[in-house]
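[SOLVED] Predicted holo structure with zinc ion

Edit: marking solved, answer below. Original request kept for reference. I posted the sequence and ligand SMILES and asked for the 3D complex as structure tokens.
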Amino acid sequence: MLKISFYPLVIILLMSGCAENAKLNGQTEITKWKDGKTGAVSITYDDGIRTQFSEMLPIMERLQLPATFFVITGPIKGSDDAGKFAGRPVKEIINETAHVPTNADNFFERASAIRYSGFKGMQAYYDKADEFYESGQKENAYKVIDTGYEKVRSGKLVPGKDTSMEIASEAGLSWDDLKLYASRGYEIASHTVTHAHLAIMDTANMLYELQKSRQDILDHLGEKYTFSAEVPFGIEDPRVMKTALPVYPSLRNLMPEPYMKEINRGDKAQPVTADKEYVQWQRGPLSKTPLAKMQSWIDTTLAHNNIWLVLVFHGIDTLGWEPLPHELVDTYFQYIKKNEPNLWVATFGDVGRYMRERMDTKVTSNLNADSIAVSLSRSLDKNIYYIPLTLKTYVPAAWGKVKVVQDGKITGATVQKDAKGTYVLYSVYPDIASVVLKKDKS
Ligand SMILES: [Zn+2]
């Protein structure tokens, strides 16, 4: 938790004879959201769908809104690693299926291998097996896998490999495109190599999907973009999360922070009931979601102070799952933009970084006659957690103007008032050694 100490209290009491709340002066906190805003919104897009870039990017450029794109890395032109089976020869597995029925011991390996059997039509068996498995019907999942391999062994299938709907809607995306988008401030993040069903895969293949996707992003875009990921289909399977969390620091599927409540897309819980420091409230508009409903999520976020609204978009116009017309999303984004004075709109990665940095950083302050020295101490890796924090320090009203000096550089600050007293809001880089607020005598 945040620790605020201001031991020069005694000095203040001696110095201050007026009615001003002297105890307050020097008191410093890291504001819950950047720039002391009321809440945060992250716009996220899944699956790298072509129309997200062709239709939505110009709209976001016009409105100057950031966003996160979770892309499927395998099919991107120039990727080092496409989808494949990580394990023994698939032929061996196919042969085994002739005399050993699918069971708990071999299911994950067989489910991982089935799309790489060399024949078309296997994606449907893979999808169906996942559906059964994730709804608790394991025996049915095993049966589907058996039927699939029976078809493979029959030799009556067309040789080749299926293209999933997600991969088809991403076709044409290149690393050069993504590099350009990243340079404009968008976050590019992983959505695995092939949009795989990780819940029915063995550890080696789960790791392949996660690590190879990370490696391609690292090689083409750099480390900054290896922070966030979304395991496809929004799953929270404990076995998958345990494997994915060490690979990506920030999973949209699940953030295990004890100080944050997470309400996922399918969850009807209202964020108003949450009693945690932060609530991550994920909402994914579907084709039939009315604009008024989408706008009400913004209103709810603004009516509280602890909500991080994470919007999850898929299809746009004619492409992708549950598509929305781009004109509708444009109108919605204008509504977000209108509320930007009170809402921090930032990428999924940046809001997560800020939140973790704030909860990790300890602030102390020391009030003197004409200055306040503020110091920060933190344990997070500065290469990964580099978002400037917003500090709020109460200052004596008599100071008038205030200047902020960070490592010798003057940054200035606007003096504001709230119900408690006079304060300044200012931004501090995480690796700063010293911050001093000074009464500006100029
Ligand atoms: Zn997806």
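OP edit: The two ends are 38 Å apart (CA to CA). Thanks to everyone who chimed in.
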